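Morning F.,

Quick status update on the modeling queue. The single chain you submitted on Monday has been processed. Sequence for confirmation:
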Amino acid sequence: MGFFGFMYRQKTAHPAPVPFHDLSGQTVLITGANVGIGMEAARQLIAFKASRVIMAVRSLPKGEEAKNQLLKGNPACDVQVWKLDMDSFDSVMGFGKRAQELDRLDVALLNAGVKKQAYERNNATGHETTIQVNHLGTALLSIFLLPILRQTATRYRKPSRMTITASEVHMWTPFKEQSAPNIIQELDDEKTWSSPDRYNVSKLLNVLWARELASKVDSKDIVINTVNPGLVQSSLHRENTSAAEKKFTAFFGWSTEEGGRTLVNAAVAQGPETHGGYMSECKPTP
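C-alpha cells below.
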C-alpha cells in the first residue's frame, strides 16, 4: 500500500457506520478513551447498549469530563473512569491487576498512543517515550488482561475480544533497528530516533506483537486483532508544528467519528477469521 494509494483511500473509503450489535450485559475497556477515536469508539459502544464501559485515562478530571458527555447517549450505562499511565510500568501493572478483579471483561480496546515530534526518554523506565507508550505499555497491559478475557469467554461460551490500534504506517518503515542485537535498546538510543519513523516502528511492533500473542491464544477464547483507523483529525497530531502536515491532515483526515467506527468494527463486528490479523478500511488486510 503506497502513499498515493493511501491518499486515494482516505478520500474514497470513508468508514460506514457499524451495524448495531447488542452488547447488553457486556463490559468494555478502552484505553485512551477520553479523546479522539477512543472517545468516539466509547460513544458508539455505549450506543450498542454495553452495560459497563471502563475508560482508561491518564487524567482523571479529563476522563470525568468525557464521561459526562458520553452518558448523554445512554445514561443507564455504567461508565467508569480508571487512571492508567502508559508511561509507567507500575501504573500498567496496577491497572491490569484491578481489571483482573472484574466479574467479566468482554472487549478490550487498546488504543492509547502518542506521536512525538522530538526525542523523549522516560526517566522512570529508561525507554524512548513512543516505544514505551505505544508498544511496551500496551503489550504489558495485554498480558494482564488475558486471564479475565479468557474467564469471561469460558463463563459465557463466546470469544472475548482484544483489539489493538495500529496504523497503515507500520508498512512504511525500513525498521533498520531489526538487525540490532537488542532491538528495544537500539530504539531507546537517541541517535537512532527520527520522526515520523519512530511512530511507524511502534505501530509495526503493535502488529507483530498482536500476531505473536494470537499464536499463543485460541480464537475460541479470545479473538485478537489490530486495526488501522486511517489518518484522523484527532489529538494524536497535537504536537505537529508543520503547517504543511496540518493542512494535509485537515484535507485528507477522517473525522474522529469515522476513525472510531474502524475500532468498533474490529472489536465487535469482525469474526474469528481476523484472529492475529490486521484490519484496514473495516476489512481484513494482508
